[in-house]
Design goal:
The chain has 355 residues and is mainly alpha-helical. The chain has 15 helices and 2 strands. The chain is globular and about 65 Å long. Residues 52-303 form the G-protein coupled receptors family 1 profile domain.
Length: 355
Amino acid sequence: MEIPAVTEPSYNTVAENDFMSEFLCFSINVKAFGITMLTRLHYLVFVIGVIGNVLVVLVLIQHKRLRNMTSIYLFNLAVSDLVFLFSLPFWVDYIMKGDWVFGNAMCKVISGFYYLGLYSDMFFITLLTIDRYLAVVHAVFALRARTVTFGIISSIITWVLATLVSIPCLYVFKAQMEFTYHTCKVVLPKKSLIRFFLKFQALTMNILGLILPLLAMIICYTRIINVLHRRPNKKKAKVMRLIFVITLLFFLLLTPYYLAAFISAFEDVLFTPSCLRSQHVDLALMITEALAYTHCCVNPVIYVFVGERFRKYLWQLFRRHTAVSLPKWLPFSVDRVQRASTMSPSTGEIEVSDL
């Protein structure tokens, strides 16, 4: 993760050998904005995201039992959100202090986790879209293909692909001393190599994280809408609505960041050198990246407002664990409550796809 607007001047807009011009082009106002405004948002996203996604994982494990592809993909999507969120406190501390205090190994690990969570999130969103496409458009084939085994195998392959795409970060991101502070950024022998890597990274993010998933979304949901229009199915339409809202919000939150990262990486190609323009690009990159972070806490909120059964399962989970942890304060038998909730039709007739 590169934070040029906060911790270091931009290399793109000034002459390579003119350090003073590079330093003067650094925007103090951009840094102040990042510290005072965006760090509060980052902490809020971290708290809501961790609590929300942990609850999603608990609900899926205890109530859904991960019995079909949809539940498996939703489970992995929550895990990928947690992987992404794991890196957030470290970057917030880096932004506030302007000094990386966690060492070189953690610089590599946290950078890797950042991109691993980012790519795996987008991959599992795409898998959910394809899963809905198979369930609605190719219902007969889906009975054979949408199995737990295939869901687990495809999830493992997805994590392997996301890991492979993130591995370069383990090599190029390094912590090093600069004057009186430490930085965690892309470090290569030549600045031309740094520019090349940032361009390659921006292209990879936009192709794998935006263009290909967007094409899959357009193709799949066009076919799904046509099928549901010809053969209305209330149950399938409800499930499709949930996945569609998750996918749509994911694109709305992440697309501005992908585009801003692309413009930042190719700024020297797209525009003539300008200090003011560079500051504007830095500010846009900072704001859109903060907006992209919020995708980690959006999915649990969607489940609460869109998924009726999820609200029911969440309440049962809360009631059960509260009853177990506070038995002395309850005016009734805990065993009786647990037996009743276990035998109730609402949990005995679980539809995995009705999250």
